[in-house]
Design a protein that fits this description.
eight-stranded parallel β-barrel, alpha/beta, TIM Barrel, Double Stranded RNA Binding Domain, 3 domains, 17 helices, binds zinc ion, binds 3-methyl-2-oxobutanoic acid, three-stranded antiparallel beta sheet
């Protein structure tokens, strides 16, 4: 059997490796929301989590498998270390999916084997086929990763991969776990695997890489030229440390430079057949959703999805673009879903128009979500004349935050100016339903609000990041506030949008505090990978 593909398979690990970013913790509902968006985006495989890590992770993978793992939907994958317990738990979690995959891994670099695993090469060579075969007893679709492959002895790696494939692995994934390799080295590693693993044609070669040196995307593109056909990536490149290879950068590189990559997939250069299954017009909104729900801000100059990615500031560039777009633009902003559609709705727009526009934007809300979003829309429309697609997205992203509102903001009021001391009063309903009011003075209005909230909520924390972004241009624009706070070495994020940035700031802070509070209640026990 030859296991090959004539296009590039996109394996999204936003919900697993991406969620390992400090502070990016998502609850089950948020994971389902992102999984639905990934399915709409057209990813082939969703790595939904690491079920053995905690009952919460197990539950999330199982729910994603149930809700998103339909016959026509993506394959749902679960991560498992190469142990029977991990694999069995992963198999159980993905059971509801129409198409399920188990991804098991074991380190193969000398440094990992000696210090982390405390195992010899011989022991690793014996465990890998055993565990792949065990995973195979549950599902046909089994992926094996030799962790830290980028720093493993290639000759040893070939032996491990041969055994994994012989035991039934249908995908072998080559991780540059510590983001150490350079593009030509990584390409050569993939070529070496293709040339030296005798049964390699029975499996798809996948790549996984971290961005410690900023080379993950470049490494993957070189890997494709040398035979890799599956890319493991995350939205906005979030993930452990410096993150993973960014899905949007990979997909758009393959889209914009299709003619260059076509021959590496055996196609004529001029073929217009897409190289991936991704609907590129869903890229921008998926990026915003992931950023809002994880609290991981996208830097303005980030390729493809940064706010400056399509902005021309220099006069020479603006002049060139006005004369002919292609002078300075290699891709069209509309190809990632940025529209010029300005005025869509206003305060007289009815429920039907609202629902229809959301459908057009690709949001499929439940009746309750729609009701809540419509109330929020009406409130914003009262303050803001024109509601654009960007505003709608901010409203929806805000509304579908599924953090239980244990503490609820009932009122926030500030007094500030250049001759007064910034003072804030807040009224908050606590989890027992009691309304509590307190006030504080701060260095500025937001500081005063946060101090007042702290006096009510009483969960010690350190604010480590606060940012406000305008959703659209204009004096009445909505402001989106994202914050990150630390409590006992864990980071929690919060997000909210409102036309009043003090209100958005207060709600974003409570959003993070609610996350922290429910995490304290859940007292999750976690297994570290
Ligand atoms: O970076 C890594 O090696 C991983 C593996 C579990 C594939 O995330
Ligand atoms: Zn990783």
């Amino acid at each position: 059997m030859t296991n090959s593909t004539d296009r590039i398979i996109i394996f999204d690990t936003t919900l697993r490796d991406g969620e390992q970013s400090p502070g990016a913790t998502l609850n089950v509902e948020e994971k389902i929301t992102i999984a639905r968006a990934l399915a709409r985006l057209g990813v082939d495989i969703i790595e939904a989590g690491f079920p053995f890590a905690s009952p919460g992770d197990f539950n999330a993978v199982q729910k994603v498998a149930q809700e998103v793992g339909t016959e026509s939907g993506p394959t749902i994958c679960a991560l498992a270390r190469a142990t029977q317990q991990d694999i069995k738990t992963a198999a159980e979690a993905i059971k509801p999916a129409a198409k399920g995959r188990i991804h098991t891994f074991l380190a193969t670099s000398d440094i990992h084997m000696e210090y982390k695993l405390k195992k010899t090469r011989q022991e690793v060579l014996a465990i890998v086929p055993d565990m792949v075969a065990y995973a195979k007893s549950f599902v046909n679709d089994v992926e094996f990763s030799p962790e830290d492959a980028g720093r493993s002895d290639p000759e040893f790696l070939y032996q491990v991969l041969e055994r994994a494939i012989a035991a039934g692995a249908t995908t072998v994934n080559i991780p540059d776990t510590v983001g150490y390799t350079t593009p030509s080295e990584f390409g050569a590693l993939i070529r070496g695997i293709k040339e030296n693993v005798p049964n390699i044609n029975n499996a798809i070669i996948s790549v996984h890489g971290h961005n410690d040196l900023g080379l993950a995307v470049a490494n993957f593109l070189e890997a494709i030229k040398n035979g890799a056909r599956q890319l493991e990536c995350t939205i906005n490149g979030i993930g452990e440390r410096a993150g993973n290879a960014a899905l949007e950068e990979l997909v758009m590189a393959l889209h914009v430079r299709r003619q260059y990559f076509n021959p590496f997939l055996g196609r004529p250069p001029e073929s217009t057949e897409p190289l991936t299954n991704i609907d590129t017009t869903c890229i921008y909104k998926t990026s915003r959703l992931v950023s809002n729900l994880t609290g991981m801000m996208v830097q303005p100059n980030k390729a493809i999805v940064g706010s400056n990615a399509f902005a021309h500031e220099s006069g020479i560039h603006q002049d060139g673009v006005l004369k002919h777009k292609l002078t300075y633009e290699i891709m069209d902003a509309q190809s990632i879903g940025l529209t010029n559609n300005q005025i869509v709705l206003g305060k007289h727009s009815g429920r039907n128009a609202f629902r229809t526009r959301l459908k057009e934007l690709g949001f499929d809300l439940s009746e309750t979500e729609l009701n809540n979003a419509f109330v929020a829309f009406k409130e914003i429309a009262d303050k803001k004349k024109e509601i654009t697609d960007w505003d709608l997205q901010a409203i929806i992203n805000d509304e579908i935050h599924q953090v239980p509102e244990l503490f609820r903001l009932e009122l926030v009021q500030v007094s500030c100016g250049d001759h007064s001391r910034p003072t804030a009063t807040v009224t908050i309903r606590n989890p027992e339903g009691v309304e509590l009011t307190d006030a504080a003075i701060g260095t500025g209005p937001v500081d005063a609000v946060y101090k007042a909230i702290n006096r009510v909520v009483k969960v010690p924390n350190e604010l480590i990041e606060f940012s406000v972004q305008s959703v659209t241009a204009g004096i009445d624009a909505m402001g989106e506030v994202t914050i990150r706070l630390r409590h006992q070495d864990r980071i929690y994020s919060g997000h909210a949008a409102d036309t009043d940035i003090i209100v958005a700031s207060a709600r974003a802070y409570l959003n993070a505090l609610n996350r922290l509070y429910s995490a304290l209640q859940a007292q999750k026990t976690e297994v570290k990978i």
